[in-house]
């Protein structure tokens, strides 16, 4: 592709915030401290987790950059940035979460394969760009199309990004055509994040944002979009990011028995306390985030300061001054909800949080019940151990 530099230029790492916790250097994967995460509803770009499977591409000739549309369509096309920017621009507030968020806690049960993440492989941003449904109309696919005349049922996104899992080929993933052509699904070809041009870490110049779905499907650094008959056959759709029961191990795994993971289950985490925090006895403010996939709202967040014996309901909010009502038009359906609870803590204890979404899905109590060999979708109750110190320090 014109404007894409070769591997020798990949050493040019983007500038990054010094407080990020680096979980792997090559490829670069990092998350912010949890305390920074819940301090704002919209996550600053600097504090948005960085997730990569290969070196970060450098695309510097924006005028020659284009995305090709191919496959089972009647009008194959190449679209340049000016074509995409000419379409109506939408702003969608959406939370992206890596399927491996909270993997580190899962690996304490039994070893798992994958980058170790604490609770911050998640972030909420205002994405700006064209709706994929509008873009697909340019290549002759009407809105709310489930299949093209030539049998296309899935939309595959192919990245400029090259990774070892694809044997040096590009990172790719797909979503169903009916989701891609549904304007209500808010799938974007995004060129802005929080009102600024996307930066290199987050997919400059153009990325897909698929709200409500694990982050692995929101492909960065778009190269091409293909309409295909079956799901994408790439590694990250077929041999990764699938949910297996605890009984499956690397000797007996059969990847073909599971569908690629799409929606994220209900999730929450405490961000105001680190594990074994020393705190003074008395009132403690407990804050964090809760989110669910598929556009489902958060109905409740329960907090316990006695390891789960008794519970108090936390208050929930998105933007200050606007009451959060799950599934209401005033609420951002694709975005997380922040929660806050005050509790009296007088002795060493375990503080626990669990969320319930609008479909009454609840988080599983124990991580052992959902352990899986890839360490994905750890949505078990979030637990933080606290020590209560009576000194005047």
Automatic annotation (TrEMBL):
GO terms for molecular function: heme binding; molybdenum ion binding; molybdopterin cofactor binding; sulfite oxidase activity. Residues 260-388 form the Moybdenum cofactor oxidoreductase dimerisation domain. GO terms for cellular component: mitochondrion. GO terms for biological process: sulfur compound metabolic process. Keywords: Metal-binding, Molybdenum, Oxidoreductase. Pathway: Sulfur metabolism; Energy metabolism; sulfur metabolism. Its cofactor is Mo-molybdopterin. InterPro entries: Ig_E-set (IPR014756), MoCF_OxRdtse_dimer (IPR005066), Mopterin_OxRdtase_euk (IPR008335), OxRdtase_Mopterin-bd_dom (IPR000572), OxRdtase_Mopterin-bd_sf (IPR036374). Residues 1-33 are annotated as: Disordered. Residues 53-235 form the Oxidoreductase molybdopterin-binding domain. It comes from the Eukaryota. Its EC number is 1.8.3.1. This is Sulfite oxidase. It comes from Pyrus ussuriensis x Pyrus communis. The lineage of its organism: Eukaryota, Viridiplantae, Streptophyta, Embryophyta, Tracheophyta.
